TrEMBL record:
This is Surface antigen. Residues 1-22 form the signal peptide. It comes from Plasmodium falciparum Santa Lucia. The lineage of its organism: Eukaryota, Sar, Alveolata, Apicomplexa, Aconoidasida. The chain crosses the membrane at residues 279-300. InterPro entries: VSA_Rifin. The keyword Transmembrane applies.
Length: 320
């Protein structure tokens, strides 16, 4: 009976609350925590805080570290400020130069006539400078000399050699004629035909000279003339002179002709003779002119490149 009564009371109580809640204004008390400030403590009072030696040392240490860091920051900023200042000065100079150039161009354009018609515009004729003309002229001369001079040198060397050979052959033939005229009976036998006996191929060969003489003397000796020539008498050994004497004299004549030809060739091909030759002198002059033109071309080309580089830098500055 008691348990049921307790349950009934528990159920009745919420019902009473629900019925009576719209008619009452409940008061709710806020929970306020108890707080205590540091300033209320005597330990952290203003007098104790300023007079404390530990706090003074902490404050001094903090001030020193702060000042040191500020000093280091100022030192670092000095270089940065200097770089920024230089960069700003450069930019200012560029701006001033650009404004100045724009102003000059505007002044020049302002002086032009504004009523220009299409038919009044003159055609642009680019006049080349003297340096460009000389440079191209030197280049053309260098190309011509570069292709023609090797052939010219080859022709000159061939002419010098052929002239030396011809002179040596002529000197050898003259020496051979002089030697043959001293041979007993040969000049009397051949008379004026002796100069046709010596040629450019046999003047230094004793066997060839002997065969040429025999080819002329044999028919004469075999014909048995009334007056026997001395050469035929010597050959038949009627004069008491052996034929070996004639052979030795002909050999001496050929040998002397060879010596004379070699001496003349050496003389014609010596350094003094070569440099006194007009062909060699003209070749040296041509080489000297070619070298001078090459030097002028290189100098003008360097100056032109330098000028173009400066012009490109100026155009780049204007575009900026």
């Amino acid at each position: 009976m008691k348990v049921h009564y307790f349950n009934i009371l528990l159920i009745a109580l919420p019902l009473n609350i629900l019925v009576s809640s719209p008619q009452k204004n409940p008061s709710i008390t806020q929970k306020r925590p108890t707080t205590r400030l540091l300033c209320e403590c005597e330990l952290y009072s203003t007098t104790n805080y300023d007079n404390d030696p530990q706090m003074k040392s902490v404050i001094d240490n903090f001030n020193k570290q702060t000042q040191q860091r500020l000093h280091e920051y100022d030192e670092r900023m000095k270089t940065t400020r200097q770089e920024c200042k230089e960069q700003c000065d450069k930019e200012i100079q560029k701006i001033i130069l650009k404004d100045k150039l724009e102003k000059e161009l505007m002044d020049k354009f302002a002086t032009l006539h504004t009523d220009i018609q299409s038919d009044a515009i003159p055609t642009c004729v680019c006049e080349k400078s003297i340096a460009d003309k000389v440079e191209k002229g030197c280049l053309r001369c260098g190309e011509i000399l570069g292709t023609a001079f090797p052939e010219f040198g080859l022709i000159g060397g061939t002419l010098v050699h052929s002239a030396a050979v011809n002179a040596a052959t002529k000197a050898g033939m003259e020496a051979a004629l002089v030697g043959l005229e001293s041979v007993n009976g040969v000049s009397a036998l051949l008379q004026e035909n002796i100069k046709y006996l010596v040629t450019a191929t046999n003047f230094n060969c004793k066997d060839a000279l002997l065969e040429s003489i025999e080819a002329i003397a044999t028919p004469v000796c075999n014909s048995k003339p009334l007056i026997t020539p001395v050469y035929c008498s010597i050959k038949s050994n009627t004069q008491g002179i052996t034929f070996s004497v004639i052979k030795s004299k002909i050999s001496d004549a050929a040998e002397s002709a060879g010596y004379a030809a070699n001496a003349k060739y050496a003389e014609m091909t010596s350094v003094g003779t070569i440099f006194s030759d007009p062909i060699v002198i003209s070749a040296i002059v041509v080489v000297t002119i070619a070298v001078i033109l090459l030097i002028i071309y290189l100098v003008l080309r360097y100056r032109r490149k330098k000028k173009m580089k400066k012009k490109l830098q100026y155009i780049k500055l204007l575009e900026e």
